[in-house]
Specification:
The chain has 407 residues and is α/β, with parallel strands linked by helices. The protein contains 13 helices and 13 strands. Helix 7 packs antiparallel against helix 8. The longest helix has 21 residues.
């Protein structure tokens, strides 16, 4: 049996958005942008720059400082390229010291495959890029994960930079060095840990983000409050409406606070041996939904939202959290316009859930381990010791009216 390990962040009173919210070792602020430091061993620390509307000169200075060689390959997708590719190509070319190449990939979770990722390797080889080259991932989580994986394996590893353009990528996938692609049998099952040289966030890119993508990213912001930062959750309850209308100060604070939480967890557990797994609250159920429904049917954050509702429901069934907290979780997800149930045309059923969950990356020695909520708000456990009956009951409740139910 797996051991129960509880992880809770030390509580500090909530500070207003103009103040630092974590230790001074993690964050600093300039006049125009915040810097959150990802503190790793062996001199691999890197900054997350969080600002709005950087000048071209400022952006060039920051990004070029993290390019070690003379050649850059910017990789983006066909939805982002018409909006931002030329801008970042010019920013990196400024001064004439760098040779900048570009590659545009097809957009969508269903394109997050080893075959599409291979196009990055093909382009790098065609250009005869060497080990001093830098890849730049310009886009959301799919681009970031694929470009990071390509960087990890091209000539056994080259540098890369994350330039996330979605909330999901800004607060979660661009930070921490998880890279990879999907497999038909499981999400993100092929990949590597490979840390970027920096993460460059310009919150003005969110102005072009579709509402559905915005809401999807908010699901990961909610997660941080649930697993380790109760004051942040309470702030979200009071400020969700401001996030949904993209209030600049509100979004910048939410992104910064999320990155500080992520950086603190990655510092303690870079390779996900323990505490980092708690960042996957709702993901075991959510990944099963994404895969079982067909990649691209749900945005990642939408599936995670349903998965979070399932984890909360299951935790409540076992008496690990109060029903009042279960209700608050449902309420904030609904307030964020996120799904908390499966539609009637969903192909999901109990058998499909259990089959897909059995190949989750958190399975150890054949035993499924879940991230569940336990105790007061801001506390969770990563454990294989849970009531399987409660898990099956939860699954059955969520698939009760789904088309995937056997007749």
């Amino acid at each position: 049996a797996g051991s129960i390990a509880g992880f809770a962040a030390p509580s500090s009173r909530f500070l207003p958005s103009s103040s630092r919210v974590m230790s001074s070792e993690l964050s600093s602020t300039s006049d125009d942008y915040d810097i959150v430091k990802v503190d790793l061993s062996d001199g691999r620390d890197y900054p997350i720059y969080i600002g709005a509307g950087y000048s071209d000169e400022e952006a060039s200075k920051l990004l070029q400082s993290h390019v070690k060689g003379s050649k850059v390959l910017i990789v983006t997708n066909d939805r982002i390229s018409p909006i931002f590719l030329e801008k970042y190509e010019n920013i990196l070319k400024a001064g004439g010291n760098l040779e900048v190449h570009t590659l545009v990939l097809p957009d969508g979770e269903q394109k997050k495959t080893i075959e599409v990722m291979g196009l990055v390797l093909d382009k790098a080889l065609e250009l005869a890029l060497d080990r001093k080259a830098t890849f730049v991932a310009l886009g959301g989580g799919v681009i970031g994960d694929m470009v990071g994986f390509a960087a990890a394996i091209y000539q056994r590893g080259v540098n890369f930079i994350q330039v996330p353009t979605t909330v999901m990528a800004m607060v979660d996938s661009s930070v921490g060095g998880k890279t990879g692609v999907n497999h038909s049998l499981g999400k993100n099952m092929v990949g590597a840990f490979h840390q970027p040289e920096c993460v460059f966030i310009d919150t003005e890119t969110l102005e072009t983000l579709p509402d559905r993508e915005l809401q999807s990213g908010i699901s990961e912001i909610v997660k941080y409050g649930l697993i380790r930062d109760d004051e942040f959750f309470e702030w979200q309850e009071a400020n969700m409406h401001k996030m949904l209308v993209r209030d600049p100060e509100t979004m910048r604070f939410a992104i910064k606070r999320s990155c500080e939480n992520k950086a603190a967890v990655v510092k303690d557990d870079e390779k996900e041996a323990g505490v980092r797994a708690t960042l996957n609250l709702g993901h075991t159920f959510g990944h099963a939904i994404e895969n079982g429904s067909g990649y691209g049917t749900w945005l990642h954050g939408e599936a995670v939202s349903i998965g979070t509702a399932m984890a909360a429901t299951m935790s409540g069934k076992m008496g690990w959290i109060d029903e009042s907290l279960v209700k608050r979780i449902y309420d904030i997800l609904i307030k964020a316009n996120l799904p908390v149930e499966l539609p009637v045309d969903s192909p999901m059923n109990r058998e499909l859930f259990l089959k897909l969950m059995s190949v989750d990356k958190k399975v150890a020695n054949g035993q499924l381990r879940l991230i569940l909520l336990k105790g007061d708000l801001g506390n969770c456990v990563f454990t294989g010791e849970f009531d399987e009956k409660a898990m099956v009951e939860t699954i059955d409740e969520f698939v009760a009216e789904c088309a995937g139910q056997p007749v």
